[in-house]
Amino acid sequence: MEAGARQQMTRWGVLDVRDLTEQRLTHTALLLVVAATPLAVWYLPGSVFRWQRSLAFALVAAAGALAWALRRWNPVAGALALVLILLGLAAGAAVLIPGSAFAFLVLAVVAAGALPWPPAPLATGLASAALYTAAGALVPPQPYSDLVAFGLSLVGAILFLNARSGMVILRWSWRRHGETLRLAEELRDR
C-alpha cells in the first residue's frame, strides 16, 4: 500500500513541477510580449527613427512569443530558450545601444526563475555578471560596472532563495498528501 501511495505521489509531484514551470513560463512570456510590443512600435519611424531600440524591443517580444509557443510542448525548453535568447540579446544590445545590456541581463535572470531548478536564477545571475564584466572589454566600460555585476548576482541569489523555499513547501505538501492517501487507504481497509 505504501509503495503505491509513494508511486502516485511521485507521479503527481512530477506533474505539479511541470505544471508550475508551464504556468511561470506562460506569465513571464506573456508579460514580455505585452510590455515589449508597444515599445517596439513606439520607436518605429517617426520624426526620429531609433531602429536599434525598436529592433531590441521587437526581439524581446519575439523571444517571449517563442517561449509562450514552446510552453505546452516542453516548458523547460521554452524557459531555457528564453533565458539564452535574452543573454544573447544583452550581448547585442551592449554593442548597439550603449548602457542597455543591464536591462536585458536582469530580464534573463528573472526569466530563469521559470526553470524548475532552484539554482537557475543564481547561475544566470552569476553568468550575467560575468558577461557584463566581459562586455567592458568589447565596448567602452560603463560607469558602476562593478555595482551592476553585484546587483545581477544579488538578484539571482534572491530568486534562488525564493525558489528553494517554494520547492521545500512543495515537497512538504507532496509528503503530507502521500501520508494522507496512505492513512485513507488504511482506514478504508479497516
Protein described:
The chain is mainly alpha-helical. The protein has one domain. Helices cover 83% and strands 0% of the residues. It has 6 helices and no strands. The protein has helices at 2-42, 51-70, 75-96, 101-111, 120-138, 145-189. The radius of gyration is 21 Å and the shape is elongated. The two termini are 13 Å apart. 32% of the residues are buried. Residues 5-13 have low confidence and may be disordered.
Structural class: mainly alpha
Calculate the terminal CA-CA distance, rounded to whole Å.
13 Å
Helix content: over 70%
The main β sheet shows up as: none
Continuous helix count: 6
Shape: elongated
Radius of gyration: 21 Å
Average pLDDT over all residues: 82
Unreliable stretches covering 5 or more consecutive residues: 5-13
What string, H for helix and E for strand, traces the elements in order? HHHHHH
Number-wise, the strands total 0
Strand content: under 5%
Q: What is the total number of structural domains?
A: 1
Compose a concise summary of this entry:
The protein has one domain (2-189). The protein contains 6 helices and no strands. It has helices at residues 2-42, 51-70, 75-96, 101-111, 120-138, 145-189.
